[in-house]
Design a protein that fits this description.
This protein has 185 residues and is α+β, with helices and mostly antiparallel strands. The chain has one domain (15-170): Alpha-Beta Plaits, CATH 3.30.70.2750. It is built from five helices and eight strands, in the order H-H-E-H-E-E-H-E-E-E-E-E-H. The strands form two sheets. A six-stranded antiparallel beta sheet has the order 2-3-1-4-5-6. A two-stranded antiparallel ribbon has the order 7-8. Helix 2 crosses helix 5 (153-163). The protein is globular, with a radius of gyration of 17 Å. It starts with a helix and ends in a 22-residue tail after the last helix. InterPro entries: PspAB-like. Pfam families: PspAB (PF22742).
């Protein structure tokens, strides 16, 4: 960043650190101890699909890599979601596969199309929580949906308290975007 950028108040965007996803299995143990939430075995990657043969080839490669463990869907905002399924006690493999999808897209030049990745959790009382990785910020945040597009703010803050020190958490709460239609949540 040059002095002119500093003078004009411009800053470089944070570079995503996809390897931060590998901290999720350890964070899941901490989250379970603090809140009783356990992994569901479901995780998603959200991105804006691109047109053209290169992107179609990339999607085909991802489906070949993950086989029948991946489903594709779209939301009302025009984003594409890839839902990955694993056994609930296999969060390490789930995270590895989510990382593979993200890094494959990034390596093919489609990194700017990535929005977020998430891993979902639940407890015996039916509470749901997703740990969301914001690709463009390189940070995580908890999202706990309730019915009727309401959020369980208390659970989100409890999860944040449990995960501090485990994951690079998004400090700006206004960036804790709701992902209401996220598959697997």
């Amino acid at each position: 960043m040059g002095w002119l950028d500093t003078l004009l108040g411009r800053s470089k965007p944070v570079q995503p650190n996809l390897d931060a996803l590998f901290a999720l299995p350890s964070a899941a143990v901490t989250l379970q101890a603090a809140t009783g939430l356990v992994p569901t075995g479901l995780g998603s990657v959200c991105f804006r699909a691109a047109e053209g043969g290169a992107f179609a080839t990339l999607e085909r490669d991802v489906h070949e890599l993950l086989g029948d463990r991946v489903d594709k869907s779209s939301d009302s905002y025009g984003y594409t979601w890839l839902l990955v399924r694993r056994s609930p006690d296999d969060i390490s493999d789930l995270v590895t596969e989510l990382h593979a999808v993200n890094s494959t897209m990034e390596g093919a030049g489609f990194g700017p199309s990535l929005l977020c990745s998430l891993v979902s959790f639940t407890d015996p009382d039916g509470r749901r929580l997703a740990i969301v990785y914001l690709y463009k910020r390189g940070t995580f945040y908890p999202f706990a949906p309730l019915s009727g597009q309401h959020r369980d703010n208390a659970l989100e803050l409890q999860a944040r308290g449990a995960l501090e020190g485990e994951l690079p958490l998004e400090q700006d709460l206004s960036r804790w975007f709701p992902v209401w239609s996220a598959p697997g949540l």
